[in-house]
Amino acid sequence: MDPVLMGLIAGSAVSIGAYTVLIGDNPISKITEHLYTGILGGYILATNWDFINKNAITKIQTGQYVYIIALILSLMLFTRLKPEWLWVSRYPVALTVGIGLGLAMRTTVIADFVGQIRATILPLNSINNIVMIVGSITSAAYFVFTRSYTGIYKYINLTGRLFLLVAFGVAYGQTASFRFELVIGRLVEMLRPEVAMYTYVLIILVAVVLYFGYKTKRIEWYSAK
Amino acid sequence: MSLIKKLLDLDQRIIFLVLFVALAFPILNPVMLPMAIQDYSIQAFEFADSIPDGSIVIIEGGNTAATYPQCGPGLIAQIVHLLRKDVKLVFFSIGAEQQVWTQTAIDTAISKLPAGVPAENGVNWVNLGYIPGGESATAALANNIRSVVAKDYFGTPVDEIPLMKDVNDATAFAALFWWGGSEGSIPYGVRQFVGPFGIPMSGSCTTNEVPNYSPYISAGQLQGLFGGVRGSAEYEYLLKLPGPALGQAMATNFGGLWWLILVAVGNILYFILRTRGEA
């Protein structure tokens, strides 16, 4: 059999197994979950080992001994497996977090703070600009908790809350749409003409196994109530 | 129990089943609904179109198995678009799984290229592969590529790749295209390429992340954004390169319609119960 087709059928089987969790936790969904975690864990380990090989060990072999320090720091991370040596692993962690924070903070002020404020300083010559300015100011004002919501501030607060609710609504709609797209992505592969028949057979097979599992009470029926 | 309460307590499995049918139906029976192109997509398309022929650009491929069906078709369209303009492409990924999907997108795009368009590995494009370290790695890459990459995805030393001859930092690139999937990594590009080096950037992300990054477009830090499967479908449409995303976008419409009905009916029923004092 063509290896690509085999991959697609395996993908279809795993997807069906994963989707059975919608009926309730069951052995098929658990097997899928463990399979996914195991395979992904193994793959990431192998890929990272390949990266170390290509980018650290090769460089050390060519005389760039500074990379030995990186390797030692990496190995120090494993000391956390023994509780008495845990403190050793804190040094590479501190170094990584510190460098990461430093690099991000270097440009965060300009990119995420000054740039965003500058983008709201707009001329009041279009509806879009007015909405942007009013929305930004009132939404920020909503988070001022040091004064009571009375007088004009009550209306500013209310307007800010409305803008925030609209923003949350948009975020929710986009999130729901993203989840649909995840399912559609799988369905497109599962319902390809050359795979569809296998998918239907697998669905029936899984349905039969689950039916007997629930019927014989070997699998506990999930109730949301 | 009243009918309203029964409907409000509808078993979630029924909701999932109807959703499954609503999503599968347009895939099995393709239908086309009218589609308006979003401004963000037009901006991103025009930005890519404005890249001078023959320049070098850098592309982050951040799609995984989960997000590739949504954003992959858009990335394929982008590769075809740029290679047709003889733009040289340097790819990298900040995730282990993502590098494989990036290579899949490159291979698929090359198979879609018109005859005669050059697409030689090492000359017209290069995949630097996986670079671990998130934002720190992005910063290091922008400052000195060879400090983080010794060999490309296929194991070829970077110094032996013709395309990489005069390329060693962000200043070598005319643009950055960040196909971040659901990595949440677009700010890395904004902070490490756009801010310090002034490299213009556009991107793509999954639908749920679009609201997070739209402020970057308003601020001019992003030149445009393709969001999820709809963004990919719009790229295919604008490039006149029909692909899988257009069909998927239609299926999303059906799912969205079902969800909209549920939200509307749920709220109306809850409102009725509340006016009756039963909620």
Named CATH architecture of the largest domain in chain B: 3-Layer(aba) Sandwich
How large is the share of residues in beta strands of chain B? 5-15%
- Let me know the number of strands of chain B: 6
Distance between the termini of chain A: 46 Å
Our count of helices of chain B gives 11
Give the key terms:
heterodimer; A: 225 residues; mainly alpha; B: 279 residues; alpha/beta; Rossmann fold; 2 domains; 6-stranded parallel sheet; 11 helices; 11% strand
Structural account:
- The complex is a heterodimer of chains A (225) and B (279).
- Chain A is extended and about 70 Å long.
- The model of chain A has no long low-confidence stretch (mean pLDDT 89).
- The longest helix of chain A has 39 residues, at 152-190.
- The relative contact order of chain A is 0.09.
- Chain A has helices at residues 3-19, 27-61, 67-77, 86-120, 127-142, 152-190, 193-215.
- In chain A, 78% of the residues lie in helices and 0% in strands.
- Chain A has 225 residues and is mostly helical.
- Chain A starts with a helix and ends in a 10-residue tail after the last helix.
- Chain A is built from 7 helices and no strands.
- Chain B is an alpha/beta fold.
- Chain B has 2 domains: 3-30 and 253-275; 39-242, Rossmann fold (3-Layer(aba) Sandwich).
- Chain B contains 11 helices and 6 strands.
- A 6-stranded parallel sheet of chain B has the order 3-2-1-4-5-6, with helices on both faces.
- In chain B, α2 (12-28) packs antiparallel against α11 (244-276).
